[in-house]
């Protein structure tokens, strides 16, 4: 930018190189504002009245207003010894309230227009739909006097950038909330230029360094008054405002075009997934749809949420029998389920297993899903031994491993698919042995049945002894049935859309949503032939690995684009020798 200007063509050239970066347009907007307040957006004109002379005119106007009783006599401000950055020779650094004024406060005694934060369109920088109130309706914070041409800036949670220009006369006369700083440019600083400064990256950083408070951070009046303010000549302010408006309008068009492209991608993705999952999809057309989807979806997925949708689609296809071919020679699921039932009856007869109350399947999902030939439905009670921890107080857990011996898996440790071994608690080995039914010593499904993550299901393959917490259930295969059902398929099912629906049909929607052991046993599982279960698991593993690769490549591409954007922005800011570019970060 040797000529000191930044054109629409240059903005387009930057955007073309980083168009797919997720935050490209917001960062370009910040970049334009940063150029504006650094004197790098438009050319300087030697014939402009210097800012030093403008400061004298501002001081004279303030003196007139003080004499007229319209504003209070301002306190003197210390000069800025170390400016935040270099500005052109005909600019000047000043303090916010050195070059602006507020209009004081009043208690409304007639009908008035109330401006609070909800009335601000911060993206457009204007007042929208303020409320008209009677004096008796005035909230205690309705005090700040506002007039046409003022800029209002929310000092509470200023990082939200609720800044607006009062562009029109408002009837009845407006009163603003005390949450705002009212900034009157005295007719010598353009309101729109003040808006640009307040939203520029350097000012955002300056406010963040000064604001106080945690839950509702705010900048007080005295700190706001001394914020550094880069002041250009009045004529250059006009050129800056015009150029910013031009480039922001271009950003609006780029944003609209990007949104349009994303909408087309989303529609194509949704249509592709719908063709795969639609009930009318038949065996003849499905392979064609599946090949098209698996070839097309990777090129359509540009955001992590799309990959999440792709994963769910894969699982949905898997548990509906549409991901791998059926083999007529496979033993039907019904035959395998009879073997499991025979083994369960034998365990009950020999008192190795206690029989449960018969399951009614009163809220079954079975009728809603068409299943392939050879598949069957089965309840968890037919497939698993389901139990939980009872008779132990969670307050008896130990925090440190050397104080206990057996790690306890609580609901926070059971996430969909995986066990998260963090923040573990422990119980003594002797206690775990005394509660053997709820110990985890073999491959099992773990199911959270109360709490925020209710219904999360993971598979554990223990290489050591673990124990259940009171908010986690386990589902084990019956003794002698390890070769009759695939637990990897079971966890896949419960994390699929069909399985999740089945789980949440059984959740008791009370003040504390929960599942009981009875409702867990009542949940249904779509059971393919055993051989097909293994083929499904292998196929899903392969496709999920591809999703992992796609997700990793998206992360890498996002990082690369972000770094490229940052490098290009910093390079574009090197218009002045030795300038330390910090914009658009």
From TrEMBL:
Keyword Cell membrane in record: no
InterPro entries linked: Restrct_endonuc_typeI_TRD (IPR000055), Restrct_endonuc_typeI_TRD_sf (IPR044946), Type-I_RE_S_subunit (IPR051212)
Domain Type I restriction modification DNA specificity: 203-255, 394-552
Entry keyword set: DNA-binding, Endonuclease, Hydrolase, Nuclease, Restriction system
Recorded superkingdom: Bacteria
Pfam families membership: Methylase_S
Single annotated GO MF: endonuclease activity
Family indicated by similarity: Belongs to the type-I restriction system S methylase family.
Record-given protein name: Restriction endonuclease subunit S
Organism: Gemmobacter denitrificans
